[in-house]
Amino acid sequence: MSQVYPDYGRPLWRRLLLTREMAIVALLIIVTLASCAGVDYFADKMTLYNLLRDMMATLMIALPMCLVMITGDIDVSVGSMVGLTCSLLGLLYSKGVPFGLAMVIVLLVGAAGGFMNGWLVTRIGLPSLAVTIGTMALFRGIAVGLLGTTSVTQFPKAWTDLTKLEIAGTGVPITTLLFLALLAGFAYLLHFTSFGRGIYAIGLNKEAAAFSGVDTARTRIILFVLAGTVSGLGGVYWTLLRGTARGDIGDGLELQVIAAVVLGGVSVFGGVGAIYGVVAGVLLIGVLAAALRLMGVTAEVINIITGGLLIGSVVLAAALKWIRERRATALATAASGSTEAVDQATASAPGTDRTTDFGGQPPQPGDPSLSPGTASPLAEELLSSAGEPSPPNGD
To answer: Which residues lie below 8 Å from residue 77, measured CB to CB, with a gap of 6+?
Structure first.
């Protein structure tokens, strides 16, 4: 079983630094510095601006996906939910619904889609992968059916300008504030609440979590609802960012999110992961892709490099887990051998309890081994208190 809570027997610096998440953070820093030094225009403010704008939806959706995957589930319908909410937002606004009300409606639709996923997984008992593959096709079909081959491009300028603003000329989009608010909320929920501890417990062992008092079904449904709601928010963001609503928006986004979450240290088997590692994983993929594009690398080669990086991280994590398990087994074997040696030495030492020489039974009266003068001080005291004469101390 993987280690989830800190091993306080290790030094603090090892607990903080020698983790897979910190390795991703370090790799992100190295790639960023190398790109700034060796890739033309990468260090420009406009590159940072475009990078964060393009990665914002992935960053937001990766937060609830992290929690879902820590429980051992997965949601591959998030990209289709982005397309569905995008199309629905465009349709509602084109029919005269106020834009603010239309946003609330599509967020509720996202929550409803997530609830349907969670209900089918927990109440019907279907695998999350099978359920969300089905809803992925369902949501995408509805998204395309709502608008057909048309698209809606007329949205309030005050709303679309929000995605173009930056914070005090820094090149950081103002929508980053929304992401930081979501980041703080999900980080607190996962790492500082009993609800978050229940998420880890479900990922490690659902039955044990239920016996310990965790409402596993309710917890998993809540996480699917969060994933659907944030995906709806991602649909609103993409609509405002591109200034258009189409049914194919978000196509393939679920693969980017899942790849970034796994790269960030979340185990596909559940029970392991951290929010900061996931954020680092998303940014690492974005930084690497942006640098390669500026170097003139084609999209196909970028996908190959990203896929290789993901496979390498998974293989490395599996190798490290195997090494830790082998080391733990070796230590346990050595400790067991030491215990057996101590037991054997104790049994052969003079003055060892003689009950072990009689199959675990105390010696019987009349036993020749009970020669005069061998009574213990405690036996002498008991015999004296009973009015019996003490055994002689010699012949």
So the answer is: 113, 117, 132, 133, 135, 136, 139, 231, 254
Compute φ and ψ for 245, nearest 5 degrees.
Answer: -120, 120
Alpha-carbon distance 26 to 351, whole Å? 60
| Alpha-helix runs per DSSP H in 243-298 | 253-263, 275-294
Cα Rg of the chain (Å, integer): 32
The confidence score (pLDDT) of residue 367 equals 52
pLDDT tens track for 153-193: 888 888 988 888 888 878 889 999 999 999 999 999 999 99
Q: Tell me the domain boundaries of the chain.
A: 12-325
pLDDT band at 353 (very low <50, low <70, confident <90, very high): low
Q: What is the pLDDT of residues 255-292, one digit of tens each?
A: 889 989 998 889 888 888 899 999 999 999 999 999 99
Higher pLDDT, 134 or 327: 134
Interaxial angle between packed helices 275-294 and 253-263, expressed in degrees from 0 to 180 and rounded to the nearest 10: 120
- Helix or strand run (H / E) with residue 4: none
Fold of 12-325: ABC transporter involved in vitamin B12 uptake, BtuC (1.10.3470)
The pLDDT confidence band at residue 370, using thresholds 50, 70 and 90, is very low
- Report how far apart, in Å, the C-alpha atoms of 329 and of each of 7, 242, 325, 326 are: 17, 55, 6, 5
Query: Residue 268 corresponds to which tokens in the numbers above?
Result: 């596909």
